[in-house]
Amino acid sequence: MDLTADTAALADATAEATRLLAPRYTEPVLAGLLLHATADGLTLAGNDRERAVSLSCAAIAHTEGTVLVPAKPLAETLRALEDPAVRLVVEGSQLAVRVPGARFALPLLDRDLHPGAGAPATDPVAEVDAIALATALRTVAGTAAKDDSLPMFTGVRMHGDGTLLRLVGSDRYRMATASLPMRGTAPFDVLVPAGLLGELAKLAGGTVRLHTAPNRFGASWGSVHVSTAVLDGGFLSPDAIQTSTVDTTLRIDAGALAAAVRRIGLYTDAGGVLELAVADGEIRLSGANQRSGEATEHVKADVSGGRTSPSFQVRYLLDALRPFTGQEVSLGIQPGMRATIVSAVDPGDVNITYYVMPMRAPGR
Amino acid sequence: MDLTADTAALADATAEATRLLAPRYTEPVLAGLLLHATADGLTLAGNDRERAVSLSCAAIAHTEGTVLVPAKPLAETLRALEDPAVRLVVEGSQLAVRVPGARFALPLLDRDLHPGAGAPATDPVAEVDAIALATALRTVAGTAAKDDSLPMFTGVRMHGDGTLLRLVGSDRYRMATASLPMRGTAPFDVLVPAGLLGELAKLAGGTVRLHTAPNRFGASWGSVHVSTAVLDGGFLSPDAIQTSTVDTTLRIDAGALAAAVRRIGLYTDAGGVLELAVADGEIRLSGANQRSGEATEHVKADVSGGRTSPSFQVRYLLDALRPFTGQEVSLGIQPGMRATIVSAVDPGDVNITYYVMPMRAPGR
């Protein structure tokens, strides 16, 4: 293999492939990137047996060929280069990365031990706007659990039917759902690892095509195609959360409420629980701890229904308000230890609902 | 005490006082800030028995008085406020921080347990430009040791005599010196904790006045005055480093060399040691490790004298080049395990010299 490529384009492609592969590898060879140079350009592919990724990059192949090299050192080297063009050429048992005055030589890894680039992409089952998908995933994938103790909570349920894509994520203590428009050709209902979807939200652009295959889910945009094994173990469903006993509804500016919650949060105890008291035309937030003292703040709100007044963990309430920054939100409050339902009063194309559990007030 | 102040100005003053106090307190009351309101405005003071800080802030005192309150909660509360004006008023055993719609109440601490604001500033022994001082301190204070095992290496020697301020810092493995112009009235030679000088470099502006008192060192600018106990245990001196056997001198662009060192650093082993080979009109940097492979880069240099070719720890060599970014540097290389001397070919008012120890080349 011997090729010349634009340094920045190749650095971007390599970085994107490296980020989309899972960060931990059980076998060293799975940390490799397959480079396949043809007259059409360069294809980069990785496969760690759970995730598979492939993308292409323009390149002039002087000699065609395929090599497997360590992904991270290649990505770091390309990112650090300043010359506009770079040459990748096999020299003995090494892939040399050459620019004028410098030579970086990566060891070739054994392709026989690598699972290969993975199956080619199936026809897409749906298309969705990347910006809308990223907006939904930032909240829903961010609400999934980070630890692996209960695998189903590390996934996002992606449910497509006709023209609506619905997402659900939960870590058991709170749940986020989102619905957004899509153009679908076949229904699907899969539980996809949230970690990959979080990366996808940062990297995807334009139109994202969704692909399904037995026990696998894929997404593609531009020349990038990434797929992953899906999770099983039951489906997350917002139907599991009781929402029928809402007796108090607030309409309030999400940013103003979040700013007040942050201030009162400076005066909560280690658990970070603040009390919310619903009054006429306003709510009162309060907190107290031994070190800082005590604090109370009033925030204007449109109050209807009863005066049910829950307490919340500061961090969870801020997470629930974050998707709605700059918007007016509705808080549907239920009595007892039932979830408060946060949604935009005037949602756009991406309709997010956040369910946050109240806490027992400090000292009760 | 009862006063009204501009929120942003009071938040800045409180944050500055809190940052200049040491981050660890042996007694809870030392985490307090003394607020002293008079017809002239507000004075803020802290004293943790090692450091003392005081500064003033414009305020309208409705009732004069002095209180001691926890510094960090006060600083965090003021920083989080959005209203342009804030009222601080004693209410019972609390200091209430009031803005329309909100009240934050900090506990009053026992002033009898606090050492007080500290002695007033003595007459300055020197004046120095804050920007020049900060430039010198960023390198010299940054080179001092972070751990307390040998206290003298956690200090910066500040030596003033006539019109020149000389600074020396070392962690035993490398040493940085700087000299810069000052206007002095009395000679001084003190070892000042580097941690405080690092904060001073970030906060001071305009002209910095230096103050000495028995076993203490102080600095003041604007209304801010900070002082600290000095360290003892001997003086750091560049005279301890042998520099007479320089046989190879390089002149090279500091930024180009640092960029190449960073690239080759991707190919060094865990210890991060790269080899530098001096040739005609250029140097060659090389590194190798099992994971990434091997790398070589040539950088143009003006070489004079011999061809002595040391190896360096990547991190230390980058630290030695950082003060000279954008400038041409001279590297004075000595044979054997003797320091390489890095300095600007054309230094400005602030003249920095960095002494970096070579390492044994990998596998030798």
Explain what this protein looks like in three dimensions.
The structure is a homodimer of 364-residue chains. The first copy, chain A, is α+β, with helices and mostly antiparallel strands and 364 residues long. Chain A has 3 domains: 2-113, DNA Polymerase III, Chain A, domain 2; 126-238, DNA Polymerase III, subunit A, domain 2 (DNA Polymerase III, Chain A, domain 2, Roll), CATH 3.10.150; 241-356, DNA Polymerase III, subunit A, domain 2 (DNA Polymerase III, Chain A, domain 2), CATH 3.10.150. Chain A has 6 helices and 27 strands. Chain A has helices at residues 7-20, 71-80, 130-143, 194-203, 254-265, 314-321; strands at 2-6, 32-38, 41-47, 51-57, 60-63, 65-70, 85-91, 94-99, 102-107, 126-129, 155-161, 164-170, 174-181, 183-184, 188-193, 207-213, 216-221, 224-229, 248-253, 273-278, 282-289, 293-300, 302-305, 311-313, 328-333, 340-344, 351-356. In chain A, the strands form 4 sheets. In chain A, strands 6-2-3-4-18-17-16-10-14 form a 9-stranded antiparallel beta sheet. The first copy, chain A, has a 9-stranded antiparallel beta sheet with strand order 15-11-12-13-27-26-25-19-23. A 5-stranded antiparallel beta sheet of chain A has the order 5-1-7-8-9. In chain A, strand 3 (41-47) and strand 4 form a beta hairpin. In chain A, helix 1 (7-20) packs antiparallel against helix 2 and helix 3 (130-143) runs antiparallel to helix 4.
